[in-house]
Design a protein that fits this description.
alpha+beta; 2 domains; four-stranded antiparallel sheet; 11 helices; 8 strands
């Protein structure tokens, strides 16, 4: 989730476990501890752009790192709070604030290494957007009321609501996926792999990408009281050995391509009209589009260079209107 939600969730958890006289301090402590896991964004290299991708939401989000992450938050806060709070309570609130950092990120499509080092792979449940106002604002309201009234009850109610909301979004994802499976069958496609994920900021409109016969098919499902499918585009699945048969698999370029494929769970295609760019087809500004949100640019003339990582954001008025139209169950212009 976004860093605001991470902090708010941490604050709610710490507040929910706080003694009445500690409610306000616990809220602040939980807020700080909740964002510590995302400090992994500082792991980066000027010469290797993919390093930050590999380590963002990595070991700091593992359930086995929770006591360590809480300890880091404790050490940061102890100099300021040692005269205001016993050490045991400070660590407790740090622990609660850090507790679900990895879990909530695993609920997104970006995923996290939740069980590292036992399982060295991203776990992604795809049930909530990176930014979801309903989830976040509910928790904000709960902790503000609890902070003012010196009560942990409101944060507990907010957390229960947040949990119920995640169950709702899980149901929404399943409804959307069922529609896409039916659509693929109508097309005569055998689905080899599929991802259905919420579009930004809501749990109503879902982007679907499935692979069939070396082709990605992109569609969107509006999962309201009734469901509506918006059929999108298709694009070829990238296969390094087929596309670049002469590329030395031991070259730095080949290694970077394989790293990007791992990060993208092999949902990789070439950027439309720009074959030197590989994109993560899971993400696009357009729910039914094939233009990736981010990707890597290759220098095919020098295989000893690292790839470049870049974002490809299209914030055009037309694209925004198309998104709104789909969200509101309107017809769209192709």
């Amino acid at each position: 989730m976004d860093i605001v939600t991470q902090g708010v969730l941490g604050a709610a958890l710490a507040q929910s476990a706080a003694k009445k006289e500690h409610v306000r301090l616990a809220t602040i402590i939980g807020l700080v501890a909740g964002v510590i896991a995302d400090a992994d964004i500082l792991i980066r290299s000027a010469s290797d752009p993919l390093l930050s991708l590999e380590f963002h939401r990595h070991f700091t989000h593992s359930i086995f790192f929770i006591p360590v992450g809480a300890g880091i938050a404790f050490l940061l806060l102890w100099p300021f709070l040692r005269n205001k709070l016993p050490a045991v309570y400070l660590y407790l609130y740090c622990f609660m604030g850090y507790l679900l950092s990895g879990f909530i990120d695993a609920c997104t499509s970006y995923g996290t290494y939740l069980l590292w080092p036992l399982i060295d792979a991203r776990i992604s449940w795809h049930i909530i957007s990176i930014i979801d106002p309903i989830f976040t604002l509910t928790l904000i309201a709960a902790i503000i009321i609890g902070y003012k009234k010196l009560s942990s009850s409101f944060s507990r109610i907010g957390l229960v609501f947040a949990g119920v909301y995640l169950l709702f979004t899980f149901s929404q994802m399943n409804r959307a996926e069922d529609s896409i499976i039916e659509l693929a069958a109508q097309r005569g496609h055998t689905i080899e792999k599929i991802i259905v994920k919420p579009t930004i900021g809501n749990s109503l409109l879902w982007r679907s990408v499935y692979l069939s016969n070396d082709t990605f098919y992109i569609d969107a499902v509006r999962a309201g009281l009734s469901k509506r499918i918006y059929q999108g585009d298709s694009i070829n699945h990238f296969d390094m050995t087929k596309t670049f048969p002469e590329l030395d698999i031991n070259s730095l370029l080949a290694e970077d391509i394989q790293r990007f494929e791992t990060f993208s769970d092999n949902y990789v295609s070439q950027y439309p009209g720009r074959p030197e760019i590989l994109g993560d087809v899971r993400y696009s500004m357009n729910p039914i589009g094939i233009t990736p949100l981010w990707g890597i640019e290759m220098n095919l003339g020098d295989t000893s260079q690292h790839v470049k990582f870049d974002n490809y954001r299209d914030a055009s008025k037309q694209l925004k209107q198309q998104f709104i139209d789909m969200l509101l169950n309107r017809d769209i212009n192709d």
